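Suppose you are handed a protein chain with no further information: no name, no annotation, nothing but its sequence. What can you learn? This example shows the usual starting point.
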Amino acid sequence: MPTLKLLTLNVHKGFTFWNRRFVLPELRDAVRSISADVVCLQEVIGTHSAHAARHKNWPSTPQYEFLADSIWGQFAYGRNAVYTEGDHGNGVLSKFPIAKWINHDISVGKHERRGLLHVILKTPDAARDIHLICTHLGLFERQRREQYERICELVRTAIPASAPLFLAGDFNDWRLRAHRVLDRCAGLKEAFVQLRGRAARTFPSRWPLLRLDRVYYRNAKLVNASVLSTRPWSHLSDHAALSAEFAL
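A reasonable first move is to predict its three-dimensional structure. Written in structure tokens, the prediction is:
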């Protein structure tokens, strides 16, 4: 069986907790060490003129392209937040060919711009498509309730019932409401819930208490999953990274 190893991380725009230090080059080394086939990124910067002027080691390319480097030949970027200095959003890096991608606006209200980056990948044997959704949901319960429904609608209308499907990212779901909703409407299971009985603790990365980051899946067999919360990961973002491996 072909396999897929997935890594998801809120990169916190390339800065450590409280924005004390710019660590994107170190983060790239850590991401490389996992050898993931697909990487889901949240809070990744496309452009930022002020940071580029302030930090000597700021990359000349968008952050997602800098992280992809020569390892992940395919990438997609869903720009969500746009401001005077630049923009940020969700990104996907892939070793598999990207056949198509689209960024869906799921913002609720005017102050938080959120999106679903839906990427269609070709499997190694080209037998079928893999559907991957990378997201970062709102900070407030009312926003997330509506965003769950938009995820469900996207799955119902745009993704074949038999296709392998992965939904990963920062859900901000500290009340653990998403599991039941996504299972009911889309048949999605969460990797750490299936493996260990509970979602992984990921925030804050140095002393993980809240279970905010998730990897949901459908039509794939979970092989293993792990939380990357020790050094160097604990000092590279305010969120711990999650890694999960599946048989397709």
